[in-house]
Amino acid sequence: MREKVQQALDELGYRPNMLARGLRQGRTGIITLLVPQITVPYFGELAHEIVEQASARGFTVMIDETDGDPEREIALLKVAGGSSWVDGVLLSSLGLEEGVLGALKSTLPVVLLGEHTADEVLDHVGIDNERAATDAVEFLIRSGRTRIAAIGGMGEASDRTSRPRIDGYHAALRGAGIPIDPQLYAATPDYTRGSGMDAVTQLLSFAEAPDAIFCFSDDLALGALRQLHNAGLRVPDDVSVVGFDDVDGSRFTIPSLTSVSPDKSELARTALEMLIERIDGSMVPARDMRVGHTLIVRESTGEITVESASETAAETAAESSASAIHGVVTQ
Hints:
- The protein is α/β, with parallel strands linked by helices.
- The chain contains eleven helices and twelve strands.
- The protein has helices at 2-12, 18-24, 41-56, 70-82, 98-103, 129-142, 163-175, 193-204, 218-230, 264-279, 306-326; strands spanning 30-35, 60-65, 88-91, 110-113, 123-127, 148-151, 185-186, 212-215, 240-244, 258-262, 288-291, 293-296.
């Protein structure tokens, strides 16, 4: 009988209706991922991780981009919340305020990625941006750099993307007894390569140029590398450069780019697990989860012995692994 049924299925080309099956189980198996710009390498790589891991859990991911526009973020969230076929949303928000995000809590499961914009309201997963920035700048200080600039973000208190990285940059300088020079911070309207070039032009306009630059994204760092080359400065001989995000392209620049590497795989895994728990009806209080990061040392910060590079990576990886394993929660 089983063989006869299978033969009939094959002849008819029958395929089970997974949507109908999911509805009987109380879910469709479809989640939405909203990111500011899919063309930004970091978001593209993170989306890839999420799609792969969601597929392994039986979920399909629909991706859209918001351009960081609050009105578009709200519109797309309303579409997801008003539909019967989206189980939940993973959202990387740049524009929405806590009050708006809080109103979503009763409409559909939402987990925030990256920036923490809704304290004690929605689940959030990201890295410790302040600690990551401190690690990067402390590395530059240990390598002998003393006039260290920072590039990225507007630096305002409401700017939750750049503010922790500025704080980490300042913490590292204070810890080494290096005075904080406001001229060495170049605010940018975005995290693009063009803004990185403009920021370097600004920094080089002062009487004393920096001997190192900490960039808040790899795209900013790529722009910085180009403009330093245009100005006749050698990297890392004259100026060391560190980026943030460790996108795949950072390995192929000349010189290759030292960068803070968030654990994208762990971020995707943690976010999906939190979202699925909410989809399944979990009512625990909102959680703030942190995943690890590693400083990947490459040519843009000068030569480093294999032994010291391994030790630095091993120590940071151990801390990152411990954070991921224990699921550190901060209030």
